[in-house]
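Appendix B. Chain record.
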Amino acid sequence: MPQSTYLQGACVWHGADMAQDNRWVKNIPAAALEQIDAALEASKGQDWRTINADNFNLSAASAFFDEVREELENGSGMVKIRGLDVKRYDQEQLRRLWYGLGGNLGALLYQNCRGEVMREIKDEGKGVGSKLYGATVDSSGKPFLSSGARTLSPGELRFHTDRCDVVALLCVRQASEGGVSKLASSATVYNEILARRPDLHALLCQPIPRSRFGEEMGGEHIVYDLPIFGVRDGKLTSHFSLTYIENAQMLPGVRKLTDAEHEAIQLLMDVAQEVCFEMRFAPGDIQLLNNHVIYHGRTAFKDDISTGQDRTLMRLWLGMPNSRALPPEHAVLWGDVSAGRPHGGIAQPATVR
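Structure tokens predicted for this chain:
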């Protein structure tokens, strides 16, 4: 393996600086808001699943969307869009609005093997893990939640990435307590680990077993090997979700991680916490994250339905038209790794197509 070099560019940032830097915060143009309302009126009565960039015209925002895509791919890797008043729209209008906006930004991808392209992220109560993904227990007999099930509970979410170029979240309502978004530059984490422990950094550039954990239908193997860090043409891709690594370790016949690999993964999580910053969604905020260079997590939250403070986000997975080329060995997860192609999404059973 060639010797690793430090990553450079706008994607390398520390949370303490980014919390004071508004280059990633953008206000949606007034003309685009007017066009959104016009597109909603024109699509009245239409199923939101049939909305696309052709029939949900947002041409007034084309330059704005170009700016957003540039920041995601070649800038900080994240964008927060402000200015949308979600209180003006009912739930069905929000679905059409959000799906139409996402379709104007990129290609809309399946988020699970049940064919969902839009998912509400909220507390769905106890038992969501077994209801959606089947019951799984760890070696001590305690319930072991999948990544998808953890997302639909009020608990903390560890730093992770999603299986798409960009994850897009629209805040409809915020919790009464908690639910703070934690964001870290995986490029900064990469550099910090390389500086502190090059021996552990090298292990994160080598294949580590992952489980598909019943959420993916995109491969012939339940377990696959994938490095956490990969670089091509000077650009990073880091796919990391500890849940899938932990679940793989529970399965028979899977290579057990060495003590050094466990240490490397723990260092990654520790450094991500060190260099991250926190932001709290307000209703109407849109958060866009490039999964190749951003780790995201969330603090636990508490809802208060009586006051209308029950945390609800609407999530889209996007493949981006200006996406980076990915290392060839990452095709096991991403499929087509060439530049300018939508990366990720979950392959569907024939019955869903």
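Further analysis of this model is presented in Appendix C.
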